[in-house]
Amino acid sequence: MPHAQPAFPPALRDSAPETGASPNLAFEGTTPYEDYVRAEILTNLQKPISDDPGEMVFLVTTQVMELWFTVIVHEWETAARALREDDLPVALAALKRSTYELTSLNASWEPLAHLTPAQFNAFRSALGEASGFQSATYRRLEFLLGEKSAAMLVPYRNAPGVHARLEGALNAPSLYDEALGWLARRGHAIPAAVLERDPSERYAPVQEVEDVWQAVYAGDQGSEECRLGEALTEVAELVWRWRNDHLVATRRAMGAKVGSGGSAGVAWLEKRAGKHVFPELWTARSNV
Ligand code: HEM
User: Fold this and answer.
1) Which of 5, 30, 88, 272 has CA atoms 20 to 30 A from the CA of 241?
2) Residue 275, by phi and psi: left (phi above 0), alpha (psi -120 to 50) or beta?
3) Is any atom of ligand 1 closer than 6 Å to the C-beta of 250?
């Protein structure tokens, strides 16, 4: 990250002339690094609520995942906007970045993937009713994937800012809606009912859309359509992996107990983890 050369006396530099210039040590205010990264704020947000030493990594992993969710929402919003503007290179670049980010997100399971029930129990009761189910940014992510649900806004009815943002995402076309719109403008036979659908409704698979993807995949493997299809498939697979890694970590940590958010726990997660986003991209493959 670039920063201006401050005018400090040589005594305030950790000089090692034989190895070239060394980093500046003195700044007029906070460091430019702090101004940019806000590390003081970020590293003061870890407040464990139990005495268990194992809780810290649970909290930090959850916060790290929230940060990745935030970046990925940003990428998919960029990709959706670019598709709307028929700018495929920008859309593909954002989707590509998001696949690297999803891979990092998924790798963050490692510290929680091996919790025994006793280790999890050591701080679990302190969590009360808190559950990842209440993550508003995860819900935005799902909405961008086409998994819309007005009911998912209910937990935020007393948080007007969060509620308004999520409501905006509910009513906006999803990334997949924008991809289908782009295909239609390229001359593919996406039905009008799909293009004009209520974007606040959960996306449900449509035969004609499957037929379009099937034709795309049967054709030129280097076509722009095929590249978009593969970029979306990569995203869908990595989302599926996150859900399944979450499911297995949960099964290891708490077996079939009910969730802190009030669900049946593993049985409920299993149903959600079994689904594939962008459904026709998966079903079309059977006929190519
Ligand atoms: C071993 C640690 C974890 C366990 C045992 C666990 C358990 C659960 C359970 C049982 C649910 C179902 C809802 C409920 O009744 O609470 C759930 C949902 C969820 N959890 Fe976790 N969780 C863990 C770690 C995490 C982490 C680190 C995140 C990151 C933010 C997270 C994000 C979510 C999300 C987004 C949902 C909602 C999923 C959906 O709506 O399909 N979980 N979790």
Assistant:
1) 88
2) beta
3) yes
d(CA 50, ligand 1 centre) in Å: 19
Q: What is the DSSP letter of 49?
A: S
Confirm or reject: Cβ of 260 under 6 Å from ligand 1. yes
pLDDT interval class at 149 (50, 70, 90): very high
Measured from the CA of 124, which atom of ligand 1 is nearest?
A: 5
What domains can you pick out in the chain, each with its CATH number?
Answer: 10-41 (no CATH), 57-287 (1.20.58.480)
Cβ of 253 less than 6 Å from ligand 1? yes
Ligand 1 centroid vs 246 CA: distance in angstroms?
7
Measured CA to CA, the distance from residue 235 to residue 281 in angstroms comes to: 11
Q: How far is residue 268 CA from its own chain's centroid?
A: 21
The set of long-range contacts for 60-69, using a CB threshold of 8 Å and a minimum separation of 24, is 61/108, 61/109, 61/111, 61/112, 62/132, 64/108, 65/105, 65/108, 66/135, 66/137, 68/101, 68/102, 68/104, 68/105, 68/108, 69/105, 69/135, 69/137, 69/138, 69/140, 69/141
Instruction: Tell me which DSSP letter residue 4 carries.
Output: -
Polymer length in residues for the chain: 288
Distance CA 249, CA 76 (A): 26
pLDDT at position 209 over 80:
yes
Question: Distance from the CA of 54 to the center of ligand 1, in angstroms?
Answer: 17
Amino acid at 103: T
Q: Which amino acid residue places its CA nearest to atom 18 of ligand 1?
A: 133
Mutate which of 104, 269, 276, 277 for ligand 1? The one with the most ligand atoms within 8 Å of its CB, which is: 269
- Predicted local distance difference test score (pLDDT) of residue 14: 56
Q: Which residues contact 86 (CB under 8 A, 6 or more apart)?
A: 182, 185
How far, in Å, is the centroid of ligand 1 from the Cα of 179?
Answer: 29
